[in-house]
Design goal:
It contains 13 helices and 11 strands. It is α/β, with parallel strands linked by helices. The protein has 2 domains: 201 residues, 2-enoyl-CoA Hydratase, Chain A, domain 1 (Alpha-Beta Complex), CATH 3.90.226; 59 residues, Lyase 2-enoyl-coa Hydratase, Chain  A, domain 2, CATH 1.10.12.
Length: 270
């Protein structure tokens, strides 16, 4: 009998019911971000955006002991022309980030062990991030003489505030699980053994929920950072009235009145 080895790209994209599960790190290379896995995940997210893959939530998990330790620095060092090589890596990474945005589904991350560099950038794009005692976060970019990518300089100030984000990124500060939770980077702390299962349970719950309502809520939360109160009230009024006329909105209200559990999947298929 011959054995086969599963590459990170092969394992990068799986589906658990209506949850798209993405694992982007290569445990064989110190949990470094894996380029083929990233490309496979981006392709799957583009399928979601085009309506070619039916999912209701996206779950980001590590492979091995850590969530993701960032880019493979040894590859950086061995590149024939580092600026060209790293620009290509950044473009591939940013294709993934924009595909994650375009998929327009709730994003849940199970952050076990280290999330450093690009790994931290990925965590910061999650709507819900679950960590535990083993969880440690680190920007890691200035530690190797570089600057962030993956949107870190956009997301981190919005989560922890401008002053704290500057201190974290510029000093390459390691953030403990307790700090990450108290600052709003992590949504919940559980035992290490429960991180992946808890994240998966949350993703399944979101996947079974009202997709239009969740998409609208996520868009409102994102827009609130730069919107004035009057504009935000107008956006909320438009979203809630629009959603009340969708099959899922009708089902949710009717189920409440009927004292039953809403069946959003059935409503979507009517």
């Amino acid at each position: 009998m011959t054995s086969t080895t599963t590459s990170p790209a092969d394992a990068a994209v799986t589906q658990d019911g209506e949850v798209l599960v993405l694992r982007l790190a290569d445990p064989g290379k110190g949990s470094a971000l894996d380029d083929p896995a990233l490309r496979a995940a981006t392709a799957a997210l583009r399928e979601v955006a085009r309506g070619e893959r039916e999912v209701g939530a996206i779950l980001l998990l590590g492979a091995g002991r850590n969530f993701c330790a960032g880019g493979n620095v040894r590859d950086f060092a061995s590149a024939q022309h580092r600026p060209t090589f790293i620009r290509a890596l950044a473009d591939t990474f940013h294709d993934f980030v924009t595909a994650l945005l375009d998929a327009d589904r709730p994003v849940v991350a199970g952050v076990r062990g280290w999330a450093a560099g690009a790994g931290l950038s990925i965590v910061l794009h999650a709507d819900v991030a679950i960590g535990g005692p083993s969880t440690n976060l680190r920007p890691a970019y200035t530690g190797i003489g570089l600057s962030p990518d993956g949107g870190m300089t956009w997301t981190l100030p919005r989560i922890v505030g401008a002053a704290r984000a500057r201190e974290i990124i510029l000093t390459d500060r390691v953030i403990s699980a307790d700090e990450a939770y108290s600052w709003g980077i992590l949504s919940r702390l559980v035992d290490d053994a429960e991180i992946d299962d808890t994240a998966a349970d949350i993703a399944r719950t979101l996947a079974a929920g009202p997709r239009a309502g969740l998409a609208a809520a996520r868009a409102l939360l994102t827009g609130s950072a730069t919107a004035g109160l009057r504009d935000q009230l107008a956006a909320e009024a438009h979203a809630i009235s629009t959603n009340s006329g969708t099959p899922e909105g009708i089902e949710g209200v009717d189920a409440f009145v009927d004292k039953r559990t809403p069946d959003y999947a059935a409503a979507r298929n009517r």
